[in-house]
Amino acid sequence: MLKELLNLFRAHDALALMKRDFSEMLALSYDLTIDAGRILFGEVSEGHRRAELRERDVQINRVEREIRKQVITHLTINKDPGDVPYCLLLMSIVKDVERLGDYAKNLAQIRYDGGAPVPGDTNGVELHRIRSAAEATFGTVSEVFATSDSKRAVGLIQDGRKINRRCDELVAKVSMSAYDAATTTSMVLGARYYKRIESHLLNILSGVVMPLHKLDYYDEKVLGAAADS
Asked: Taking the domains of the chain in order of start, what are their residue ranges?
């Protein structure tokens, strides 16, 4: 699916503009996620960066609306029916990128809304590792998507599903801990938001390997074929 989309991007100025704006959305969401993690783990002042993060989220929403307008305009003016499925793909995944910005903003809010610093115990270390893994996935998605690298996409999807299971396992461990309410809030919400970030990244990656009607769904046969291609 994605290779054909990339060919269209090269062939049409309108679709090339959509590609540029989509890349901008990804970059804004990535930077927002990195900064939100720094706030959650107390590496920077939450109050110092909060206004900047809100503005970046507004930018992400603005670019999403622009891409949707571009898609609608292109499909209205352009008479090539072959563009339709690829434009639908773009309409789907821009929503995932927009949601990435929302969950990053939620991460940054945890401490402001009463969450305590992430503890330095085993559970805190695991949350930090989950954060690092999610950020690593995010840092690779743009390149994998741009190059339509199906093998790397499959590897990231498989790794991402493991990260999500680790998030669930961490929440279960926290539920049996003796943390106070503020620490529990930071740990549970941190794990949940990183799981949602990872899930939306996997949805974007599914556009590299899955047919349009199976976006956000991981057919093992299709993944296996993509890994072997």
From this structure: 2-228
Task: Give pTM, 2 decimals.
Answer: 0.86
The pLDDT tens digits for 66-84 are 888 888 877 777 666 667 7
Looking at residue 127, its amino acid is L
Alpha-helical regions (H) of the chain: 2-11, 13-40, 46-77, 84-112, 122-147, 150-175, 181-209, 220-228
Q: What CATH number was assigned to the domain covering residues 2-228?
A: 1.20.58.220
Contact assessment for residue 153 and residue 208, using Cβ atoms and an 8 Å cutoff: yes
Maximal C-alpha separation, the chain: 63
What is the distance between the alpha carbons of residues 153 and 226, in angstroms, rounded to a whole number?
9
- Picking from 139, 143, 166, the residue whose alpha carbon sits closest to that of residue 6 is 143
| Neighbouring C-alpha atoms within 13 Å toward the C-beta of 115 | 24
